[in-house]
Protein: GPI ethanolamine phosphate transferase 2 C-terminal domain-containing protein
Amino acid sequence: MESNEMDKNIIILSYIVFIAPLSIALFLYGFFPLMHCDNTIATQDDIPKFIENTRVKIDTLYEPIAKRLIVLIIDALRWDFIEGSVGKIAMPITSSLIVNSSAYLLQTKVQPPTVTMPRIKAITTGMIPSFIDVALNFGSKPVTGDSLLYQAKKAGYKSVFYGDDTWITLFPSIFDRYDGTTSFFVTDFTEVDDNVTRHIQEELYNNNDWSIMILHYLGLDHIGHVHGPFSPLIKTKLKEMDNVIAKIQIKVQEWNQNNDSTVFIICGDHGMKDSGGHGGSTVSETTVPFVIIGTKNHQNYIKDPIEISQIDIASTLSVILGVPIPYSNIGTIFLDALYDLPISKKLFILYYNSKQVFNHFQKLVDAYHKYLEAIKLHNAWLNTKDHPDDMTDDIVLSYKTALKGMKEILISSIVKYDFQIITVAIIFLCQIIENGIEEWFLSFGTLIHAISFIGTSFVEEEHQTWYFYWVTVLILLLHNFLRRCFAREFSQSHYQRNLYAQISIKLFLLLIGHRILRKLNSTGDKYAHLPDIAGFLIKQESRLGMTIVLIAGLALLIWIDFIHENKTHKKLSLALNFIISVCIYLRHMHNNRVAKIPFYPPTRGIFEVQIFWFLLVINLTKYIYDLICIRKCCSRFFPRVSLYFILQMWIMVVAMLHQPHSVILLPFQIIFSSVIYEIIKNDITQNSWVLLYTWIGNVFYFYQGNSNSLATVDVAAGYVGVQSYMPFINGSLLIINTYAAPLLSYFLLIYHAILQHPYNTCETIVRISKIYTTWRLLPVAIYTIIISIQRYHLFVWSVFSPKLLYEAVHSTVICSAVFIVLILATIQKAINNCKR
Structure:
């Protein structure tokens, strides 16, 4: 009977770990449908020849305003890098051009997700990319629809490009000359930009055959990812960009003086969070400068710049070049902020823009009357001889109001949800949970946490919930053992009193540890900007402190492994761990994060990481040898030895990927879990045991600085020791680094459960894993219901959707880990059956 029950549990758990990721993927497909790409291409016939019944001369009303266009994109250029105090110091030339009205500054609002590929699409097509493009950012596909660059190519403009090779991937047949640089080596701050700058001199002074030149610099973004926006390297990079702008501006001025009209634009594709990442919806990520040089607008410098949307750029540049506006565009032209155009041209351009946007809008009716009113007024103006000014102002206002209304409604209605698929996915997830636990005790805290996601603030500040839960548990345990310690019970021995006192001291130390570790990395949304320990350690003058923290973390890991390792392997493990720790230190030394070792030659950090992987292979060999020894003497130790090996490998890899100040979290998580294990192993149910380990994993996940914003993903971890872009490898390293704490918590839970129940390990592994998986999937199931209800919420894309992606990946990773452990249980069961 026990064997049949075991087989049943294995089948149920296998079903859960396979169906859960499929159900989540199905929900994502329904909630984030890949937007239908309308491949319609705009033509010259789309430029209107009539306004109602009045014929207009498009040859004079719609002609190129400039012969050349230069677009310089500085990746992750925040608004304050140009307009703020940083910009005035680091970019004095650009700032003086703006103040002297030689350049015109506008403020661009960017829609999330604030990552490069969707932003390039927005700039060139004038449409809002799908949110799921944030995932596709690591594997871009060519743009098949209409775009500014395609229209320019069709009109005979010759284009050249230098910089981020995402452009070449998106537009493979557009550029006549190009040289791409990869955007994925975030530790490269100089070469990635030097490869762009070296082409500028030749294109400006030797080659005169191009009409459009696009330059995309990546160095600033890379510095932000590794060091943050307040690093001294930021100012150095901005000064470098300022010199590039000055060089181009001199030539642009010369061309314009010789009537070779040229427009030079400097902008960012997205901003940068205070922590250095991007992808979210904070003001610093979604507000970027748009500087234009070479226009004939003579307005004086204003402190409150005009605000535009990033999707407005495509239509505006189309008009400047005199090409048809891309068919997919829903942006609004902002030419009146750049040029003193004749009123007839201005009105025609506004009419063309309104008519083009209305093609997408015609099924919606909210702004329809404003659109018709603008056309009627415009037609009446054309048929009036004196063209009164008050009438002109009314027409311009009507067009702008109609365009703004249509754009806002189109943005909000651009995604169509597949609600049937969403419903099926939710049903599958709920059914999985029902199969997970037969005797269910619903943890009030975990349920409340899952339900709290209905509020955006609880999503953005989720770490506060876990910190509150964790402190509450520690205080309750501390109160319980202090009460036992001071209880005057006759039956209580002196040994028990000492034991309770020791446990109380340990719990008090855990509370102190929590208070320190929660300040290691600031996270969340509202208080992420506050000073933290990591911010202090990252400063160059604090390099000694960073060195001490890293060495302390590595030393603790070596000590923990030494006291738990088998006696026969202690010396070998000590030697391996020491060399691995040296490799980890040298990796961070290459990035100038820790003190340099005298006489050690400078390297790129690649060789040290390769040595690290070689040492892991040696560790694997040791594990295989252990299995051979176990088979001969005591096969029941197979799961324990295997779990210990998995723990070793996981901790080593994570230590290599983590930021140097975050390595200290690994030994502390092991210590925290071990203390809790010793305290509760005989006092609570397995269900509560699983929940506590889950909570520990979540708490340390946020200690690491993670949040529900895509901006906190440590992109640099995906490229540790990697010499070329390999999406699977890069993605795997990113996931390992991000979800290090929850998986470490799960592996520690299984390992401690095996120690607690050494004679029925298979049943213990399957039972614990089933409970753990169910509690992981419960918040996912509830959240899918919440986000389906909130799908029209104002913050669905900026708050709810990133959280959904995090939950989806988290659950898939946990299911993968459970599957690995399930294989171990199945092998052990097969060994037991063979013995019988």
About this structure: The first strand starts at residue 50 and ends at 51. The beta strands are 50-51, 54-55, 68-74, 103-109, 159-164, 177-181, 212-217, 262-267, 287-293, 307-309. DSSP finds 32 helices and ten strands in the chain. Residues 478-518 form one domain.
